[in-house]
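Problem 12. The chain below contains 335 residues. Write out its predicted structure in token notation.
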Amino acid sequence: MAGIVAYGVTTDERPLLERALGRDHDLRCLDLVLDADTASTATGRRIVCSSVNDVLDEDVLHALAAGGTELITQRATGYNNIDLDAARGAGLAVSRVSAYSPYSVAEFAWALALAVDRRIPRAVGRTRDFDFRLDGLMGRDFHGRTAGVLGTGKIGTAFARIAAGFGMRLLGHDVAPNPECEALGMEYVDRSRLFAESDLLSLHAPLVPATYHVVDAGALARMKDDAVLINTSRGGLLDAQALVETLRAGRLEGVGLDVYEEEAGVFFFDKSLEVMTDDTLARLMTFKNVLISSHQAYFTRDAVGQIVRATADNIADHLAGRTGENTLVPRPSPV
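Solution.
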């Protein structure tokens, strides 16, 4: 039996973790963000289950190692919040969930696209006040228009399949073409054409140095004035301040964001009684054609169940001295 502490655990996620890990291990679930101020709560726990909003920098990782932690297992695919070199230096093993249901994110991206295109939040707000006018609610068909997909891995491919079902022309950009997308009729183009020709642009790329602010002021300037932009991948792909300026100029038909570059410490928390000090996020909230959700695209029973099962497997592998496809930093070899 190992001592495990999980951070950033939601109410809906807790029973899944408890069923998967609670019977065989001493599990503690916390809704806290793991950072320098909270690292001491892991003292005496061999395993830390982290979330994407946790801050696992050099100071935190060394504090965890000093407290007896051996493994960081992240309940997510992305791991840009973990300093892997520092983890190696601290003698910590690190794992992640390399894959889960791509449909959860792809379907949610489409939910955002349809919601902003057809003005659904505005319509629902009106009808709750018994205002049944159609003024200002006109959308447009996606059928026959062009869907651009930046990043055509599993999620991007699932998004493209749905776009093909809508009868859309498909454009894609990635480091290498995906045969599954090419079979759907996708044409791979450079980023300049992708931005310029897409009526709907959806971001599904990982956040790495080469993709940081890939959608910047220049990219936004190349986009059609009536394009729809969707980001359900990583906030850092999009220059949010440049987006504000684009929207202020009256450009873009609609924007759907499930992620935000400075979301740590904000998303997943109740900030309704606090002053919003992030001026960029506050300004984005004021645009009627912008819909922001709180990093929930992955949040289905199917996807979270797969994440929890993969996390349990990562822990079992670590305790047995095994590595696998989810291993980012292997367990240090005995001296």
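Discussion. The mean pLDDT is 95. Students who got a different answer should revisit the alignment rule from Section 12.3.
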